[in-house]
């Protein structure tokens, strides 16, 4: 007979419990030696699992056969907590009756009562991690019937406190009444009524004072909550609203000012009806609670210095209706700020009493201008923007009327403004926009053509009356090749009585304009040379020997050398001629017109002037710009023949300077750079490198390499080798670069010219298809698939195209979700199923594309919807390297906007356990239980209005939108749990049994983890 496997017996027991197989369980316990206290891999006994997922009969059977009621799970929970968490009253009664019986046995033992209590699990036992009682758990999870059973039958403590005040862990203490107020109105009312009827109260049992956090939550909830407290906890409620004052640091509040501070005007009005004092008198009847007082101040003195009378607080918080009610109930119309309060006023610092504040608010509201409002980008110019502006305008107008009524009331009661108060209306704003737009650029060619142009032959330089006339004449002379007029205007005096000095070439030159450019564009190259010579002799600081040569070259019968010297002695330019040549952009003009002669001349002129390092860099950039953006390959050839660019050596005045190397920015081949820029014309040129190489060889043959140490011939050979290496550098990635460029025609061209590049991998292991996915080039993706690219290709991390498309390695979501969704829906479904089930090795390992996307918290857009529509349930059932299904991740991160579509796609996965024994539903429950203790407020307990800390005129327009429902809170644990519970109840937990993690799955998870 084979040896028994105790692990198999243990596993079978847990399976029987989960399957609620009572017959099988009875048979197993009667025929095998099974340890009921044995733990599964999640640290649970059979009884724990029965309470979590079994039936009341299974629980009773295990208890009757000796299952230990005092055992705790690995997460620090006892059976009473598990029963309360589940909310099944039959299971709760089964457990509690057995616990009560066990407790009575222990109580009968001859030991001190405190020791007896500590040894056993009881109705008020607290969980080990967050210190929650069964009653708190039942209330927090809205298990009304279970909570009622705990209170009425088992006498649970209705005032028990959960949690721990620990700033490092980010936790707080919470009263069970606070947990009740997290729920919707009907559930909240039922639980509050039940708890108050069983002894719960506003009184903090640990401090014998009114709980501020509990009262504040009651104020925020309102919705009859105050009525319930006033009826069922009348004594404590009355004491709270009439006597309690809380002092903390520099803040002092009572319930009425707490409501005002929170922007709860209607609640404040209700408190007054219940008897809250409209004016607080500081006497011995006040119950002052010092919450945090690090400076050791006297609480009574601190309250007097920091307490704002309700009418002052209402005036500041823009509640004029409340002010009128306060005045009617006896508030002092001359209420004044204390000196301490006045010192710390952040707004309206000149105000000292309530009427001051009202007048300051009215001035502020009246000065509001709706034309200065700015809406969000998504609503700008839409009907919604107009609605928001109209609503804000109406709200401001209504507030002005209410403040005016409050002002009249105050004045009628004898209120006066403070001495020296100086409130002035804002002056009418003056527009800073000039009436006439200034032209900050050179006129375009079309603008220039519209200007009246006089023929230079008709111009007499002695009759030009203004400087502008002289400038226009100079341009006309350059355009028409009139050298005599050019010299007359720049080498001597001109105008009536020769009153104007020579025109400085630099004064009428600049970026993409000037006499030099005009001459070049008109193909008057001799005139252009003359202009450069004139600009040179006009330059200050030029050596005499250099000037003399130019004087002789420029001199003629009308302008002898001495005459030129005398005239130019009057004007000196600080701008060198080379700057005029470079700034003119004459090379660009030649490239634009596709004129080889013009381009050659421009390159010659740039090379003829002395150059500095910055000029060398400019030429390198120009050569590179031709690669990236040029549409005329001949321009690149001409530039290379003359300069050898973009290599660092440069030809200047016939001499070769620099080194035959590339700077760090330009290491990629010109083919890749052209493809990256989407330049189809230049890619076509560089795919056959013969013409480019011929240009570089021409440069090498026609320029002096004797300055190189290796000698001219060897230097030329080294240069050509460097060029060839550069031209061929990683050229097999040209398709990758074309994909990034977004030029679909370029992608198609390269595929037709170089089909062998379809599956080439980059250094990162990305094929062109994966590159298209990473950069979200959807059309390129479609083109590549049609061309036969392997759709199942993966990178070194095992990520396929869906992994990379849905969430890129750089952390980008899909930018065009509708477009991507359309492509995904059009793809073959069997292929999509294969892609969706592929797992990657990226941490934590084992993630499918959908799981990887969800782990990065995506928006619920069209892509997410399309993926769920395409996918079968298998990807949602898979555990990743951390042991989570995608639904575990959704609930663990409280993605309330994703929870419903994921559960509706695969509702059974709600009951799939992770290695810690938690289903997605369990995770949602835990997040909800821990959420309030971790300071998360449910959406039912949050304000639905814009925060009241700022004036209404400073509220953004979206706060007046038709769909605005309060400040946005992402990752809402309560809403995630609420939706999960709703869908779990609608599907029925019995329909989908709990699925435990198998040993095979554990081994697989361990493999991914490695």
Short description:
The protein contains 53 helices and 9 strands. By secondary structure, the protein is mainly α.
CA-atom Rg in angstroms: 42 Å
Structural class: mainly alpha
**What's the mean pLDDT score?**
85
Query: Multimeric state of these chains?
Result: single chain
Count of distinct strands: 9
Q: What is the terminal separation in angstroms?
A: 38 Å
Cross-sheet strand order for the largest sheet: 6-5-7
Low-confidence stretches: 114-119, 428-452, 650-658
Give the number of helices.
53
Beta fraction of the residues?
A: under 5%
Percent of residues in helical segments? 40-55%
Label the overall shape. Answer: flat
Mind describing the biggest β-sheet? 3 strands, mixed
Question: Could you name the key traits of this structure?
Answer:
three-stranded mixed sheet, 53 helices, two-stranded antiparallel ribbon, mainly alpha, about 1000 residues
Describe the protein's topology:
Elements: H1 6-18, H2 22-31, H3 46-53, H4 56-64, H5 79-86, H6 89-107, H7 113-119, H8 134-140, H9 144-152, E1 161-166, E2 171-175, H10 176-180, H11 185-197, E3 203-204, E4 209-210, H12 212-221, H13 225-232, H14 234-243, E5 244-248, E6 251-253, H15 255-261, H16 265-273, E7 287-292, H17 299-306, H18 310-316, H19 320-328, H20 339-343, H21 354-366, H22 383-412, H23 445-450, H24 467-480, H25 483-490, H26 515-521, H27 525-537, H28 544-554, H29 561-568, H30 577-584, H31 586-593, H32 596-608, H33 613-629, H34 633-643, E8 650-652, E9 655-657, H35 670-676, H36 680-687, H37 690-701, H38 712-728, H39 734-741, H40 744-753, H41 768-774, H42 778-786, H43 801-806, H44 817-826, H45 829-837, H46 849-855, H47 862-870, H48 874-877, H49 886-892, H50 896-905, H51 920-933, H52 973-987, H53 999-1009
